[in-house]
Known about the structure:
The structure holds 2 protein chains of 2 kinds. In chain A, about 0% of the residues lie in helices and about 50% in strands. Chain A has strands at about 5, 10-15, 20-25, 30-40, 40-50, 55, 65, 75-80, 85-95, 100-105, 105-110. In chain A, strands 2, 4, 5, 6, 9, 10 and 11 form a 7-stranded mixed β-sheet that branches. The N and C termini of chain A lie far apart (about 35 Å). Chain A contains no helices and 11 strands. Chain A is mainly β. Chain B has strands spanning about 5, 10-15, 20, 25, 35-40, 45-50, 55-60, 60-65, 75, 85-95, 105, 110-115. Helix content of chain B is about 0%, strand content about 50%. Chain B is globular and about 50 Å long. By secondary structure, chain B is mainly β. In chain B, strands 2, 5, 6, 10, 11 and 12 form a 6-stranded mixed β-sheet that branches. Chain B has a 4-stranded antiparallel β-sheet with strand order 3-9-8-7, with no helix packed on it. A two-stranded antiparallel ribbon of chain B has the order 1-4. The chains are: A mainly beta, B mainly beta. The interface between A and B is medium-sized, with 25 and 24 residues.
Amino acid sequence: DAGITQSPRYKITETGRQVTLMCHQTWSHSYMFWYRQDLGHGLRLIYYSAAADITDKGEVPDGYVVSRSKTENFPLTLESATRSQTSVYFCASTFSGANVLTFGAGSRLTVL
Amino acid sequence: GDSVTQMEGPVTLSEEAFLTINCTYTATGYPSLFWYVQYPGEGLQLLLKATKADDKGSNKGFEATYRKETTSFHLEKGSVQVSDSAVYFCALSGARFRGGATNKLIFGTGTLLAVQP
């Protein structure tokens, strides 16, 4: 199916565990993004990628790791989850030079 | 730095009421402005946009006009429906990402709209 898909949609984990959220897009968009959505903060950029093998920090990168070995995939890893990382995570993508983002449906992560 | 300020919600309206959600911004240069909508359980999707001063973006009965003099981009709809219940985000295109041609999007905190039948 064409589009941008995130998995898992829901995840419950414990403090200290490693968690990976997956993002896959079928449009060959060069730019991909990870945001977290928290009440009172709106959307905050965690990491972004301008192309395969090119990633950079956003506004709130601490505690997260990303990689982009293929254009279509942009996984986000929490190496040692903390309660403060309980949030809804959105992946998004766009073409270079465009400013309109296409978002995935989100991954709701709860860290106990 | 660049920022977006939205009115706090929730906004609760009856069906067919007039809607205004205020959005003001602070930015250097001439950003593009956007409204995104998030329906329950879904990701954000673009509702409308405006790329320069005095432009009016419109879609699905919603409108917003880019007002440079008041640095505002208020969202309006003449008659809301229950199906418009969602969270609405105002956003602007900020500085370019390092080395690229794509701008960072700066989002407001979102405004929850609840429309009652």
